[in-house]
Design goal:
about 220 residues; alpha/beta; Rossmann fold; UDP N-Acetylglucosamine Acyltransferase, domain 1; 2 domains; eight-stranded mixed beta sheet; globular; disordered C terminus
Length: about 220
């Protein structure tokens, strides 16, 4: 976590509620929430964020760190390219992070997640609830490892890739950039860039262009 007493969020959907809870548990005040649709955002965040200002869209200079609280990987990458800010991190106090692991800017690590020795987590990554990232993993920028997914040792996950809930990736497998690995998949071999893989064992059912990963 950043040594700061306040932050901003960009995105007011469900993902922002989880980040807000983490920040508030550390006594970090959220000064405001930006969103592309402020009218709709007010309906989504107001119940858990009473009193937090909704600031609308835009890319102003900020007086505190920002976290992009958007679950969609492609949209998170797009926003990061547009917003020149000092980015914060949010790591829940129940997460276990090895002292030799590295965590990139803008990254969020949720409740009960484990990041083991010498793992390298990129920028603006989402490590979701109870996900397990074993030793020497390399997780590319803008990736999302969903709840209860397990990545064994020396796994590499490319930029923007979405690992589905409960998926298992065995050791030394490389998953390419902007891939989608389906929920519950068991990945036994490398997956090329821009692929969708599902099943046990996982098989590639689609290879295409960069697409928006969903939360």
């Amino acid at each position: 976590m950043n040594a700061t007493n306040c932050m901003y969020l960009y995105g007011a959907g469900g993902h922002s509620k989880v980040i807000l809870d983490i920040l508030q548990s550390f006594g970090i005040r959220v000064k405001g929430v930006f969103d592309d649709n402020p009218a709709d955002a007010k309906l989504r965040i107001v119940k858990v964020a009473d009193g937090i200002r909704l600031l609308g869209e835009g890319f102003p200079e900020l007086d505190a760190p920002l976290i992009i609280s958007v679950g969609n990987n492609a949209r998170r990458a797009e926003l990061a390219s547009l917003i020149k800010a000092n980015y914060g991190t949010a790591i829940h106090r129940s997460a276990i992070i090895a002292s030799t692991a590295t965590i990139g800017v803008g990254t969020v690590i949720l409740h009960g997640a484990i990041v083991q020795a010498d793992a390298q987590i990129g920028a603006h990554v989402l490590i979701n609830t109870a996900a397990s990232i074993d030793h020497d993993n390399i997780i590319g920028d803008y990736a999302h490892v969903s709840p209860h997914a397990t990545l064994c040792g020396h796994v590499e996950v490319g930029e923007g890739t979405h690992i589905g809930a409960g998926a298992v990736v065995i050791q030394k497998v490389r998953i390419g950039r902007w891939c989608t690995v389906g929920a519950g998949a068991v990945v036994l071999r490398d997956i090329p860039d821009f692929s969708t893989a599902v099943g046990n064992p996982a098989r590639v059912i689609k290879v295409g262009k960069k697409e928006a990963a969903t939360s």
